Amino acid sequence: QSENSDKSSAESDSETEPEQASVYHKLLATLRTSAESESEDDDDESESEEDGESGTEVDSEESQENEEAEGAGEDENDMPDKEEATAEQTLGGEQADAADLSCDPSHGATEEFTDVKHESEFSLETNFMEEENGDCNADERRSNPFKQHMDKEMEEKEVEKLSTLSKSSSQIKWPRLGQLTFSSTLEKQKTLKPDKEVDLKQLHLHKPLEVTWPKVNKQLLSSLNKSCDSSFTPLQRELFCIMNTYRDLFYPERTALTNGEEIRLAYCLHALNHVLKANAQVLSNNAKRRDRKPGIDTDEYRDQGLTRPKVLMVVPFRECALRIVHNLISLLEVNSDKKIDVSNKKRFKGEFGSDPEEKPPNLKRPEDYEAVFAGNIDDHFRIGVAILQRSMRLYAPFYSSDIIIASPLGMRTVIGAEGEKKRDFDFLSSIEILIIDQADIYLMQNWEHVLHLMKHMNLLPLDSHGVDFSRVRMLNLNNWSRYYRQTLLFSALQDPQINSIFNKHCFNYTGQVAVRNVPQMGSISRVVVQLPHVFRRLEAESLTSVIDTRFQFFTDKVLPEYRDAIMSHTLIYVPSYFDYVRLRNYFKKEELSFVHICEYTKKASICRSRRFFLKGEKQFLLLTERFHFYKRYTIKGIKNLIFYELPTYPHFYSEICNMMKATDSGVDATWTCTVLYSKYDAQKLAAVVGIDRTAQMLQSKKNVHLFITGEN
């Protein structure tokens, strides 16, 4: 479960990946046969859970009101079976599946299509470099970032340093990205300055990208009303400057509404540039091996990994994969006369595209919601993409793919779990670029899937998969792939769980760059209703004890103040599903007057709960953050608001507060807003109240009272 931010992720991340020193003959000796086909995990989910989970298929609130009569006779606590489990049960066996909003029973139900008829056409082993592409000279190889990074020969002591020593860091401010933190283990960080102007020649882009990139990006530049003097936007220029050095990158300010497409295009350019260079090197060496004199054996042609996939792109929805493939095709097409051959394009558009008529009418949702949930929002998918010179093969088998595009759930079902017969993760053994886009959304899906994926990255394969070991780089044979892998992590926010991925699962010898801007103005400034905000600090001894401390603080000190009937219409906003289950069970035990809505609640129960709360027939409403994320309904009738924990998305704070203006009676002097926080919530607190107030609040152990007039 993604929201168990303090306990589960800390425990999961503490488990280190198995490391084994391996050399060439040891690798050969330990190989064993395993199935090469992809694994499908056809877990059966209850039909009722599917209804509750389809947070992305949002019906209009008007149509829901019409369903009230139909559901009025049902028991008000009619919830999906999985929701009735206790927090402890859910934390156990159901954590990986039941808590996932996306485990639709239809996912993976049909047999997965794989293109096998184009195997020889896209084989790296049997094709050769076309003469017109040529081979780079010695000077080009020395200055080529790809060659510099992949040809670096590390020593055992350097690898040991990467595994044991802490990183040294330095900070610098860039014009567009802002405050950057450079960190490295092997050497003192060299100051990297952004290029004011980008000369495409200096970027060492592979043909045809020098020609296609300005044309493809020109459409974006014109849509953003940016100056077309440069082929990059200011943001793209600085991001690509870092990407092209093969450092790891964490950018926590990626939003679907503003800069999402800019960033997607930039990392597509980097990934495609890497793949074209890697494949060109293999094809060129194929020709050299073909033309060499017989009997000559050399290590000169070690140019590939233990398996073919080089780039893994993790994205939340099929629409994202569709846009990535569209970008890749556009970047490969030099002009309209030279269309590239794309295998299975029609099937791809059918499976990853969307029908505009499927969208329910009369929806009124925030712009950021519309941007995130645009197009096909199915989140169980994976697809292999093979690229060879001027051709692209969609639905390539993973072991014949250069790029794999998948969702965390799509990866989880093929990787499987320990003990399962049908599982496979060898294709992750030689990934050289890992791109995790929109990481914040996985917090709303199932963060455990991301952790599971990271634990299976760059492990030695269990089968040879037909590799020619004379062509495999020594870094792969030595099981050092993880130290050469570049990780690009994009998110809309900074979160401890996302930070832990960057800090604990990325070992790039080149170092890391993280954007660390602090919010000067918090989302509380966007609250438009006059409302007193009381921030109540709870004292927890450790990070792992926060969950229990918060529960005790709430039940002992906060809830008693709201038990009186005069404090009716109290909404309790709960980010964690586990906390929600715990509170719901406690409310039932205490026989309090309440209703509850979560991401698994049926539509009829949602309507009934909202009506009871609005009319004051029930005093409390428990609401989960993931329900708000997937539905974004306006809850009417709120007079008292309790944030059991600060929201994951800072703008949810102002959104929930501003729901009070939907109350028919207008502004009420008795409205209240109470927020629980601890010293471990510094990042979330800063995003809500701003960095200056956060510093004051963390220094003081007193409760903080803020009054928002609607103008500040």
Automatic annotation (TrEMBL):
Presence of the UniProt keyword Repeat in the record: no
Biased composition (Basic and acidic residues): 1-10
Signal peptide: none
Annotated ranges, domain UTP25 NTP hydrolase-like: 246-513
GO BP annotations listed: maturation of SSU-rRNA from tricistronic rRNA transcript (SSU-rRNA, 5.8S rRNA, LSU-rRNA)
Source superkingdom: Eukaryota
Entry-linked Pfam families: Utp25_C, UTP25_NTPase-like
Region spans: Disordered: 1-118
Keyword Nucleus: yes
Record's compositionally biased regions (Acidic residues): 37-78
Annotated InterPro entries: P-loop_NTPase (IPR027417), UTP25 (IPR010678), UTP25_C (IPR053939), UTP25_NTPase-like (IPR053940)
GO cellular component: small-subunit processome
Function statement: Component of the ribosomal small subunit processome for the biogenesis of ribosomes, functions in pre-ribosomal RNA (pre-rRNA) processing. Essential for embryonic development in part through the regulation of p53 pathway. Controls the expansion growth of digestive organs and liver. Also involved in the sympathetic neuronal development. Mediates, with CAPN3, the proteasome-independent degradation of p53/TP53.
SUBUNIT field: Interacts with CAPN3; the interaction is required for CAPN3 translocation to the nucleolus.
Family membership: Belongs to the UTP25 family.
Protein name, as recorded: U3 small nucleolar RNA-associated protein 25 homolog
Species of origin: Eudromia elegans
